[in-house]
Amino acid sequence: MSFAADRCRRIWARAMRAYHLACARDDASAHGVAVPSGVWTCQRCGRVLLELGALREHLRLEHAA
């Protein structure tokens, strides 16, 4: 992958992560969707999970090194 494409992908991923962390809850409440208080986001891929146990399992299965 070219340097520019990789850079764009990283910027996009960072923007999406920031949205999930800062704005998703406000957007959901504006649309009448109830959002649980325990929302976890994977810092490696940005996947959003509703339980800490699910996040730990995701990290173990998807990002095991």
Automatic annotation (TrEMBL):
<dbReference type="InterPro" id="IPR011011">
    <property type="entry name" value="Znf_FYVE_PHD"/>
</dbReference>
<protein>
    <recommendedName>
        <fullName>C2H2-type domain-containing protein</fullName>
    </recommendedName>
</protein>
<feature type="domain" description="C2H2-type">
    <location>
        <begin position="40"/>
        <end position="65"/>
    </location>
</feature>
<dbReference type="InterPro" id="IPR013087">
    <property type="entry name" value="Znf_C2H2_type"/>
</dbReference>
